[in-house]
Amino acid sequence: MFPFSWIALGVLVVALVGGVGLALRGQGLRMALVHRLRAVLDRRNVARSGDFTNVVFLHHSTGRNLIRQGGVRERLTAAGFRFWDHDYNWEGLTRPDGTRAGYSYGVPDDNTDPDGLARLFAQPVYPWPLNAFSGLMQHEVIAFKSCFPASNITDDAQLEQYKAWYLGMRTVMDRHPDHIFIVVTPPPLNPAATTPEAAARARAFANWLKSDEFLAGHPHVFTFDFFDLLAEGDPSAPGFNMLRAAYREGEDSHPNRLANETIGPLFADFIIEVVQTYRTRLAEGGAQP
């Protein structure tokens, strides 16, 4: 029997010959190949467990702060979950114990805006982590979000394009009912970085993502409304639909420590509740894995 490392190398050679996109932004093919090899060799440590306790969260800096300052990893670990998270490609994957895995799944162009997520979900799924989506699919529960620049929705046409991209992603999710997908709405922008009109469209997008129009009939798809928890909800306030005053520092659109400490436990509890809900649906025959 061939050693596992030789099998992994063979899989990577096939991937290269077959034209699987391996290059990462800012890195050449050689470094991308190193990342793919490390991901393949680590597959046995990452692979999903069968009980929906293997969670991965795809994010950038706002998600990183939420995890670190909001105690997300600690809360999920205490509840019996294995919580992985994937940051920018240069940060890569972090293990449930909080240590770096030493590789990235290679998110195309490091883009987690709606167009980038749509491109990610369009990737083919392989039994090995040969692209970013296949890497994420090693986990049973996949949470993902765009960062606050996505809340700069400049016109109605852009809003409709966002919806179209997410509907396309939902079609892909429907092919994988043995996974739970958690859509995290993009956080709002600081009042210094947006307009009332763009902020209103960002609110409309978040509302649509948690609506029956998007979720009904898709029992393994859930939405965590990060936007609503962060945004000013008073229509008479000057920062309506923008990052609320208590959760911002100066003109920075990154939610502050108070925001993360407040919302982090809510996010962790939401993941726990989602898993319990889906397990119940499966037990009652309301979903087909």
Task: Describe the structure in your own words.
The chain is α/β, with parallel strands linked by helices. The protein has one domain (4-283): SGNH hydrolase (Rossmann fold, 3-Layer(aba) Sandwich), CATH 3.40.50. Helix content is 45%, strand content 9%. The protein is built from 12 helices and 6 strands. It has helices at residues 4-18, 29-41, 43-46, 61-70, 72-78, 114-121, 132-136, 156-174, 196-209, 212-215, 226-230, 257-283, and strands spanning 54-58, 82-86, 93-94, 141-145, 180-184, 221-224. A 6-stranded mixed β-sheet has the order 3-2-1-4-5-6. A hairpin with a 6-residue loop joins strand 2 and strand 3. Helix 6 (114-121) runs parallel beside helix 8 (156-174) and helix 8 packs parallel to helix 9. 42% of the residues are buried. The model is unreliable at 13-26 (pLDDT under 50).
Strand order across the largest sheet: 3-2-1-4-5-6
Total number of distinct structural domains: 1
**C-alpha termini separation:** 33 Å
CATH homolog superfamily:
SGNH hydrolase
Over all CA atoms, what is the radius of gyration?
19 Å
The portion of residues assigned to helices is 40-55%
Beta strand %: 5-15%
The main pleated sheet reads as: 6 strands, mixed
